[in-house]
Amino acid sequence: AARIKLAALQRQGASTASSPPQAKDESAAWAAARQADDREALANFLARYPNSRFAEAAGQRMAQLRETAARVTPGAVFRDCDECPELVAIPAGSFAMGSAEHTREEGPVHTVHLARPFALGRTEVTQAQWQALMGEFPKQAKNCADCAVEGVSWQDAQTYLARLAARTGKTYRLPSEAEWEYACRAAGDHRYCGGDDAHALAWHAENGAQGPQAVAQRRPNAWGLYDMSGNVWEWVGDCWNQDYEGAPADGSTWHSGQCATRVLRGGSWSNASAYARATVREHDEAASAKRGYGFRVWRGLP
After folding, report:
1. CATH number of the domain that 285 lies in?
2. Nearest 5°: phi and psi at 287?
């Protein structure tokens, strides 16, 4: 009996002695998989260590990578909840921002490099989407659930975006001015957002629009974004600066300048088609909630 007990203790000791090297191997494999940060490396780790204490983290990261891969395909459409705006994946890239042919405010032309993909509202935020989170229609609302929301200030948009982020657990904000123009151009160089025919692309004063229209009736741009030109002016995040001297080259929101005043882009139903050009810039006080002022959402991607 004593010999049997001694043998059992020896086996237990051998097992205990072998555990630290195995744990070390597992930790090293996990560190390597995290550093590689691709689905194949993570899948190999899980196949080797299916019961690992890191298995849950590996599975979560694989899901994030799958989501990113699906959503950075230009034009891929998704939404975070039933009442949330539809989103379109926008790829990373570079473009020449501004125009040398029009007003001083639109220059100087400068190269902007956006290093990370992001998602942008497929349409402007609608009356129904606004009501779902805010509990009421804005004071300029009309009886049209699918019409672009209007009569909202930059500050009002911030309130909506904060509620959307709280509802979904995702990062939402207004696009920067550079992100907006990059998405508008969609790797093209047209007069308007998606082409040179304002009547096909935009609601404006010259084609009979008498107020904000139901979204997504005109032709989208190459990345599947509707109404970037026309329908309602769209607030962006940036402080107002009278030109692009000193503008961020990475496409981030410009947080210096006249920050009580913010930028609007895209023109509206009440303006001539010239205001719907891809490079036109407008500005107003952040508290201003005039007719024709709306917005679309920006959402970060993993």
Report:
1. 3.90.1580.10
2. -90, -5
